[in-house]
Amino acid sequence: MVVPAGVAYNAAISRCSRAGLHPRALALLHEMRARGHHADEYTLPPALNSAALLRLPADALHCLLLRAGLAAHLHVANALVDAYAKLSRHGAARAVFDEMPRRDVVTWTSLLTGLARSRSHDPALRVYRDMVAAGVGPDEFAVAAALSSCAGATALELGRSVHAAAIRLALDPFLSVGNSLVSMYAKTGSLGEAKRVFDAMRVRCDPITWTALIVGYAQNGRGRESLEIYAEMVRSGCRPDYVTFIGLLFACSHAGLVDAGRAHFRSMQADHGIAPGPDHYACMVDLLGRAGRLDEAMDLLNRSTTRLDATVWKALLAACRTHRNAELAEHAAGMVWRLDPTDAVPYVMLSNLYSRAGRWGDVARVRTSMKARGITKEPGCSWVAANGVTHLFYVEDRGHPRAAEIYRKVEEMTERIRGQGYVADTAWALQDEGPEGREKGLAHHSERLAVAFGLLAVPAGAPIRVFKNLRVCGDCHAAIKMVAQAYGREIVLRDANCFHHMKDGACSCGDYW
User: Which residue positions does the secretion signal occupy (predicted)?
Assistant: First the structure.
């Protein structure tokens, strides 16, 4: 070649990295150095990208660029921040970021997207705020990542602020931004805003766009409308993908549409050539399990040629808990433990099933086994935002500055809904204690404390938005639905399963979740 060898190697390494030929890119780097050519500011960025995408440590390349005196080179340092962020080594990414004498929008975006991708949503949003405060205008990638973290952190108001910034910077026409907006509004329970963004999008040829809306409607208790959106998607010529069918089956499950779910499960492979994966089987088990068709669910799993993961068996276990089938629940729990012996979910679900059946000896046995193996369950918590501040509550929580007011409001709520016919379903209480103690324990669940605070702090006329990290119990669901009617408020409760829009004594889930 008539060009210098170093230039030729740089071009080849860059092209291989862009084409996804990452092992070849790194092999060329090794060959280049073996022949005595030095890596420079054009060599290292694509090599770092390839190493990160292959999940290889970036430390050796980091040392190489330090020896080459390139640590302060903006393009190289940006690639290093991006590589560490892609590898979820956020401490290393932040350390490089903090040492950079100069940063540009790529620097900030690399750190932000890495945090958002690994679901470190609160740190990602802090980076976004710092970026704006530093006077750096976000690009479409930064806006999409910030919106993704707003969805993950259920930060609706900040999400609206990011949306306003996107409009101001003329970034809203970008497909990635539109998709992220639809997803953010849907995942924070603002379905009307999600639909308005979707309707305003000029281009809707991407299955991600449609899938975000399909899943959003399903999660917000409007499964039948999810199916209508899917039909519109097919008519538009946009082909569904693997994730689209997860959303469809989820919609069928939460709307109790067994026949439609079966049809879509068959259609995904027969009509679209998409082989069902563990996520699809989990949705089908959930669909059949909710309908009480446990034998059919088990038959489906026995006929499956897909390698099933713990999610599938946990879906079966949840159905067994609902229908109080202890024998099949024990089998499902055993399958989960075979795949992940440290998973706390089977212990919690079995304990819940046994307690509802009054089998306190089995409850004690499960808890003893759990403790002996050093396994701890995730504590249930709920949070609600008021005046820009998020307030977090745990069961029997008295650490809030307004705890006395909150507990008085809980008592008031309970008395008011008793007048409407509320009777506590103490089968949902896990403690083996007297009826009065079990009823009081239910009244002090974290979601009820959050609702009580919402009644005190959220202005009348505004929805009270409560979020819970676990599934809401049946008694709290019934009680909060009645509270919404008794106080003339709209309460939006998002649990680990779906959104519950409660108003006028009814819930969007149709009491089927």
Answer: none
Question: Parallel, antiparallel, or unpaired: how do β-strands 464-468 and 491-494 relate?
Answer: parallel
In DSSP notation, 160-223 reads HHHHHHHHHTT-TTSHHHHHHHHHHHHHTT-HHHHHHHHHH-S----HHHHHHHHHHHHHTT-H
In the DSSP assignment, the letter for residue 465 is E
- Does residue 91 register a pLDDT over 70? yes
Phi, psi of 126, rounded to the nearest 5 degrees:
-65, -40
Final residue belonging to a domain, choices 326, 345, 377: 377
- Separation of alpha carbons 500 and 105, rounded Å: 39
- Tell me if residue 476 falls in helix, strand or coil: helix
Q: How far apart are CA 10 and CA 209, in angstroms?
A: 37
Evaluate whether 383 touches 466 at the Cβ level (below 8 Å): yes
| Structure confidence by residue, pLDDT tens digits, 442-456 | 899 999 999 999 999
**φ and ψ of 383, to 5 deg:** -140, 155
In order, the DSSP letters of 271-333 are: TT-----HHHHHHHHHHHHHTT-HHHHHHHHHH--S---HHHHHHHHHHHHHHT-HHHHHHHH
Same domain, 297 and 392: no
Look at residues 345, 274, 342 and name the one whose alpha carbon lies nearest to residue 311: 345
Same domain, 356 and 469: no
Q: Are 408 and 386 in a shared domain?
A: yes
Are 402 and 494 part of one and the same domain?
yes
Q: Give the range of the structural domain holding residue 494, as residue numbers without chain letter.
A: 381-507
* 454 shares its domain with 503: yes
Q: pLDDT at position 511, please?
A: 81
Interatomic CA distance for residues 251 and 220, integer angstroms? 9
350-362 residue pLDDT tens: 988 898 888 889 9
Q: Which residue has the tokens 């639905």?
A: 481
pLDDT one-digit tens code per residue, 460-482: 989 999 999 998 988 999 999 99
365 shares a domain with 289? yes
Domain identity same for 404 and 455: yes
Query: Total structural domains in the chain?
Result: 3
Strands (E), 79-145: none
CATH of the domain at 366: 1.25.40
Q: Rounded to an integer, what distance in angstroms lies between the CA atom of residue 262 and that of residue 277?
A: 15
Whole-model pTM over 0.85? no
Per the listing, tokens 């938005």 go with 465
